[in-house]
Amino acid sequence: MTRSFIGRSAPLIVAAVTALAVTPPAPATAQTAATAITQKSPATGTTITLITGDVVTVRPGVVTVQGPDGEQVGAHITTVGPDTYVYPDSAKPYVSAGSLDKRLFNVTYLLREGYSDTATDRLPVILGYQNAAAGRRAAALPDASTEVRALPSIHGRVVTTDRDRSEDFWSSLTGETPAAFEHGITKVWLDGKVHAALTDSVAQIGAPAVWAGGNTGAGIDVAVLDTGIDAGHPDFAGQIESSASFVPGEDVTDGHGHGTHVASTIAGTGAGSGGAERGVAPGADLEIGKVLDNGGSGQDSWIIAGMEWAARDRKAKVVSMSLGGSPTDGTDPMSAAVNALSAETGALFVVAAGNSGPTETTVGTPGAADAALTVGAVDAADHIAEFSSRGPRLVDGALKPEITAPGVDILAARSQYSTEGEGLYRTMSGTSMATPHVAGAAVLLAAQHPGWTGAQLKDALVSTAKQTPDYGPYEGGSGRVDIAATSTATVFATGTAYLGIHPLEDEPTGTTEKQITYTNTGAADVTLDLELAAPGVPDGLILISAPRVSVPAGGTATVTVAADLSRTQEKGRYTGNVVATSTDGIRLADTVVGLSTEDQPRHLVLKPSGRNGEAMPGEIMLLRDGDPAGAYYFFRTDDGHAIDVLVPQGRYSVWMWGDVEGSHGPNSRGVALVNVPTVIVEKDTTVELKAASTREIQAITPKLTANAEIRLDYHRELGTASVTDAYLVNRYYDSIWITPGQKARDGKMSVTARWRKIEPALSINNGGILYDDLIVLPGSTVPAEGTKQTQAVFAGTGTAAELKAAGVKDKIALVRQDDLDEQVEAAEQAGAALLLIVTNETGRWYDATSRTKLAVVSLTKDSGERLITQLGAGRVDLRVTSDPTTDYLYDLVRYWPAGVPKSVVYRPSERDLARVDVDFQSTTDRELSERRYDYNPDMPVKVGSLSTIKVDRFRTDWVTPGSDIRWSAEMNDLRSFQRGGSRTFTAGSRTSEKWLAAIQRPRINDAGTLPYRDGDRIVAEVPGWGDSGADHAGDAVPEGSSGQVVTLSQGKTVLEQNGWGWIDSNSGLSPKRLPYRLLTTTEGDPAVFPYSIKTRTAWDFVSDATTKRLPLIQLDYVVDTDLAHKASRSAGITVIPSHLAGAPSSKSIRTVTVDVSFDDGVTWVSRRLTQGRSGWTAELRAPRSAQHVTLRTSAKDAYGNKVEQTITRAFGLK
């Protein structure tokens, strides 16, 4: 049985490091996962090539996944809290084993932090090795990687891999051993991004009193790892001992300003202010390590490299790090480096806690490290800043932060290279500003005690901090740093003693203990009275081994603090202070103590079993009520046997994606969603995940179809926790399975099954037996439309000799799977009519072949072996039906919002579906990438794979109707990318959809961000190239083939203008109701776009601060053209004006006009319009000499909102 322990690691909590200076707040808005992926990006989407080589395309609210070869790939798209993760099947064993950083698959994070393919062509990762020797070996690097630097403190190496060779890198990294890496590598992390996080404040912590004694920190090296420094600032004259940049392509000059401010707070001389704005330790020597770039961001490896330089090379006694990241349990790479370097060098790392307060459990990395002195922020009155991150530490509940310092409105040096502020000084707030106060105090203390280690400095500062009794240890640590008190003290104590998380029921009389060491630097022995100050802690729960202790002069003494767990049966966090006073009652030192009986770890045994009771490999997920947003647990059992995980007590939902026998025999593969909606873990618990009760979820269509895509979604809400786990089923599987009749007794549970079923490109029938388990391999050529009876012959493994001996010319060559390329080449040369490969693997099989004129098809092992046996008994003719174009398809979905029904078979008739007649008005015969997305109330993002299909002009689609199922379609023909708006369908309805129709112009729909006003902000996305199909928004492809300018103005004042089709203006907006104009012009390359070569669209609207949806009237057009986009001279043209959802009703549009020009707008002729049910129609009446039509259209509503649109050469004339 495999065992895992959740209590020491956070399975899906990742570290995204940020600089810890507080910026002015943006308007607070609720962010859901649906809005998390909403950044402005190219219309075709932003691509992210994952470490596996799989390609994810992200657009607002949409995620698509394709394999390295562009084909469909199995992947989980999991949305938890604000983040969406994409886990390809090939990565899941490594992620669940904890050896592969989940940030590598967090597409929300990767997009936000600049890891898209357009932002960087190389992916930086940190490789962790078994030991230092393994990491030094020359052969220790995977293929297709380039070493950037070594990180010996964590036995690591930083490498980059070319995005174009990610598949090679992944193959070399993973090798053949399941869930284990090659080259001695044990862990792979993303090299994550990092962002940059005094007179009164210096006096507040008592620094002037220390200076008065002659101590300014002289002779002590303090490293500042930040955005660099303005070395020309007068406050740093003679202060900088050395500097180094770890940011590629940038020197140490601080173009951001954060690092200069921090360094000034530590050791600025105040020369620029006549000595007034001195730092805490103005005599110290600064070692400046630039680890964040001029934009305020960097990578984990830059920081670790800077840490190694500071502690090892420069031998800095104190290292100040005003940066931090997402909450972790202290085992991430940066925290590990802090611990290792602290132990090795004796340096003290002073680290910001973070600015994610007042929420609990928000202390980030590397402040989560055990050895770090982690700093929160207070204001001038010692009140905790609301933004200051709170403890406890994630997962184990350890005591963090340890101390606080002034961090609100701190005045310090300003970098002349910064665009923020003016003059020599500026004010900033954040735990970034608190951290250098503590670092400076540590420098002063180190100068006083030059032989002390970093651990001793930490204990001294923490144990003598000024009490802040209004705040508990998880908020303010031991209190606010007080260097005046610390520098005069002679008695110090261990700063913190955490007694851990402990089960109440496992050892009801058990105790746990920690040592507290008292240090006496004075010349006389000291006797200390010890008392536990712990309000609210049950009597006897926390005990001190002695009420009094004597500490010899220049020596140490220890006492034990212990927990008697029999003294409480309540869950809770218990904290207090062991207070050491002199015999005359003077408080000398404090130790913060803590104990947690919350989240008790219990053994949860997960026992999977397959449809026939056999072992069931697969991924198991756990969601726990009350966990932080974005957290859930992810395990895998490769052998299909039980796993034993140690989890906190609580209420869970457990589900598993198990590999089971499919619908085509013992060697077929299906995937079963086995779900236990609610599991209460109060004691050791066993959960059985049985697939025996599952049934196949089927969609049976009126016409013969093949599965082009299957998806199965599980959505669960459990108290405050929520997850949507969508699985794009790998084509190796032939079926999906679930337990019918299953519902959740608490919270919400829904399941969605989705199929795209298309007319088969090729089908094979053997005497009435239809082989529905075959796959036409990509790259092969499907014969022309028709049906033919063809003899099949068996040719072994498909060698040239075997094919010749079998006489395969003009026959179907049946072979067992071997080297595909060699088999294809030999079959072509032998003249086979079709190559039918019997897989030797479990499940369906496919591989990409090079382009070949031969049809290459794979058949599953069970079906194939039966056919081989049949051929051994005599002649077999197979009926092969082929059609290389798709004439019909079914987009089907079953959404079960309240649990799984008793019947999971979907057998719709055509009357039960909606019919969509699709017209692809393409001017050339080529493959199109096309997709129809479904979504329902439980889907935070739309998920799918873009399908490349071959079609004639017309196709009939059948779609599942329903008010709770919305659909949106998109199409890409490599010249324009079109996105349809969302809609629902009704059963029995018949609608039409035209793609690539004539007349391209700016058109807005809900496939992107609908235009809105929010107070003093206007946001509008204006796609410039929507085809005239109803409700289509589009953009030109490829980029560079067109240009677009968008301008927002109020009266004669231009508020914003840009060339990327996106307005986000928050300047110059009056709260009054005023007229505005949104103007966009486009210009296309006639060689790419022969028509609609120029457009001008002006929206005039009125708006005030209360307006939400902007009332921008949209114009659709209908004109009958041929595939060359030419209309007859007497054709009618229909204009359909409409308002966007949330704006005034389209019925308010009262006036429409159309003018036409046949000389590119030199002269115009008005055309009389007739209003009908379908729109406003006019007759062209084009002269015989005209070659094309230019349109000028306007529409106005009853509220004064208006649109004017001019389209030059909108379409041609026959």
How would you characterize this protein structure?
12% of the residues lie in helices and 40% in strands. The protein is mainly β. It folds into six domains: 32-191, no CATH class; 195-388 and 400-487, Peptidase S8/S53 domain (Rossmann fold, 3-Layer(aba) Sandwich); 496-596, Immunoglobulin-like; 601-759 and 887-974, no CATH class; 762-882, Glucose Oxidase, domain 1 (3-Layer(bba) Sandwich); 994-1213, no CATH class. A hairpin with a 4-residue loop joins strand 78 and strand 79. Helix 8 packs parallel to helix 11 (431-448) and helix 9 packs parallel to helix 10. The protein starts with a strand and ends with a strand.
* Poorly predicted spans: 1-41
Q: What would CATH call the architecture of the largest domain?
A: 3-Layer(aba) Sandwich
Question: So what's the overall shape?
Answer: globular
Main-sheet strand order equals 7-6-42-41-44-53-59-55-62
CATH classification, class level of the largest domain: Alpha Beta
Oligomer: single chain
Number of strands: 79
Mean pLDDT: 90
DSSP strand content: 35-45%
Percent helix, as a range, is 10-25%
